[in-house]
Amino acid sequence: MRLFLALNPPAATLDALGEAVERGRSYAPRLRWTARDGWHITLVFLGEVEEDRLPDLTEAIGARAREHRPLSLAVEGWGRFPPKGRRSSVLWAGVTGDTDALDSLARGMRRAARSARIPVERRPYVPHVTVARSRPPSDLTGTLDALGALRENGWRARDVHLVESRPGSADRYRTVRRWALGWETDSDRSPELDTP
Predict the structure, then answer these.
(1) How many angstroms separate the CA atoms of 177 and 182, rounded?
(2) pTM for this structure?
(3) Under DSSP, is residue 4 helix (H, G, I), strand (E, B) or coil?
(4) Is the residue at 189 inside a domain?
(5) Domain that holds residue 123
(6) Would the CA dihedral through 83, 80, 126, 176 be positive or negative?
(7) Are strands 41-48 and 71-81 parallel, antiparallel or unpaired?
(8) Which residues share a beta bridge with 2?
(9) Do the strands 71-81 and 88-97 form a parallel or antiparallel pair, or are they unpaired?
């Protein structure tokens, strides 16, 4: 199974992202624009995972998820990979809010994977939502401008999703398992940030 761990933004956030992506798509229709069901915040990419590793992996993820509190997040701003130079291959929406806690959660999920003997990359974590790809790499400066500002879209992220990537199937991304982040204080229970 080809797996990754992610946070899934709620519908209202996806709607705000969709409005901006439509502006970008009109400006640069030749880019490979990511479908709405592919808009997520990857915590760690696990790659191919053998079925016999899943029990250790899910136990480790559950233990790490309980160590973290829900996060106040929003999608805001735009960027690209690689970030320097004139030509890039990935266009993304940035993530703001509890980014230090988000980085800590991503590190915890990498530790969970390694404890289950699943090798993961050790590159710096850049939280984002991929919205388009360019093959070959191209100058995305005009597209970044065309996307414009995102309307307010804050939410409370309460769950970590183990997602299976199934290229070529109708439901390309399927949540295999979900864990609630483990602890909340009364101040974490902000009704305007709750997801349905």
Answers:
(1) 15
(2) 0.89
(3) strand
(4) no
(5) 2-182
(6) negative
(7) unpaired
(8) 48
(9) antiparallel
